[in-house]
Amino acid sequence: MPGISSPGVGSGLDVKTIVEALVKADITPAKNRLDRQEAKLSTQLSALGQVKSALAKLQGSMNKLSTLSQFQSLTATVSNTSTLTASITGSNTVPGNYQIEVQQLATQQSLASAPFASTTSTLGSGSLTIQFGTYSSGNTSFTPNPNQQAVTITIDPNQSSLLAIQELINNSNAGVQASIVQDQSGARLTLISNNTGQASAMRISVVDNDGNNTDNLGLSSLAYDPTTTVTNLTQTVAATDSQVLINGLTLTQSTNALNTAIEGVNINLLTAQPGVPVTLSISNNQQQTTNLVNDFIEQYNNMLTTINSLTAYNQETKKMNVLQGDAEIRNLQFNLTSIVGKHLDYINGPIKSLADIGIKADRKGLLQLDSSVFNKVLNNNYAAIGTIFAKTGTATDPQVKVSSIGIDIQAGLYGLELGTYTPGVSLAGTISGVPAVSSDGLTLTGTKDFGELSLEILGGSTGNRGFIEIKDGFAAQLYNLISNYLGEGGELSDRTDTLGEYMKDIDDQRQNLAMRAISLTERYTKQFTALDTLLMKMQSTSQFLTQQIDNLPISQINNKRK
Predict the structure, then answer these.
(1) Alpha carbon distance 157, 127 (integer Å)
(2) Degrees (nearest 5) of the Cα angle 71, 77, 83?
(3) pTM here?
């Protein structure tokens, strides 16, 4: 009887290979299904991520464009910037042209001592008192400046050199800078007032330990008081105020920075040119408005291009893109194009739509700017551009002005009540029943849902002050639409969360599949190990029986015949 033969140890069964093949055959269909699901979900998540990113960038741009002040900025242009420069700093500035003639600059008074042999020359001990104020015409009187404190500096005998006195003055915070200037005639101490203007001229009185406080010897060599004819220091530069003519009106000021001459404009005087007027033009910042509109078009087109690429049919691969036919994305596209194509009928005047300022959509929905139309509106109806983009607010009470509106203030009609009102002292009330407060008695600021709404109360009394009407331009409407998709509970946010849950479920299924593989491996290994053991025993029995049969007599006779 032939024996059971198989290469290898035991019965010769390759248990490991057999088990792996069986386990693979069992779990592969499920694994492939999960791989396909995961790949599909990952593609959808990636596509939605691209859409959300493009929308977020557009929303950031719309947040900026929703602020009306962005479209109401002014710019200052100076015909000769070597004479003066100007910048816009306030919100109440109005466009206009100004003729400015700089007749005189404000200067800092400068005094100088007589020359000494060297910087180590000893002057004398005692004290110096430095005062600031205004000298009358002819130096007959001195009026102290109440805004600058007089400072007394003590000079000890061991600190009485020219160099030591310079250091003591500079360390005293007296409002004076001391320096030593040397030439072939010797070393001189110079004193320059830190501030410009007539009211910052110096009077220096001395208590000289040599007993004479006014002679030109010892410490009194630094005395200066023209009202008493004590001029041991020489005035090298007089303290003067600036003098300018603005539209024929003379203005005098202690500095060269004119920050209040024209409302909301800082003017910095650089050189005096008597008789030479300079033109200052305050005008609408058309360049900034143009940049804002171009940025809007660019951001909108970038967003729409992203969506179009994800929803279009791919002609090269002959396959649908991941979001083609997606109802939610199609609805988003419709909502976006509906906003940019609508008319704002609440606006008075001819500018009611983006098309009215030259912005039109092509067949793909991308926006294009007709520069000729836009420039015409820019020059002739500048304010309307901001109105159609931004969030705006008006009050039915002419003595109430909406000064600022935050992006989160919802469009609507809100009642205004003043509970207390003493102009410049106290102010409080409610906006649509919500408390509103003031810190200056002039500006009323809402709380809670109206925390980003501020009103200027220009007059009137307490009680019912009419209504505040908030309206949304195109930028504000787009911002709100995107918030509905990206905000908490928004459609795209919820959808992304749902897909994320599906991905998590796939991870759970993969873990379960891995556990099943382990369980199957253990079971199959146990079964085939038992089979291997059984086969090994059967093989041993076969070999034994073969030997016994070979030893039978009949077997021996048959063997001899062979």
Answers:
(1) 11
(2) 150
(3) 0.73
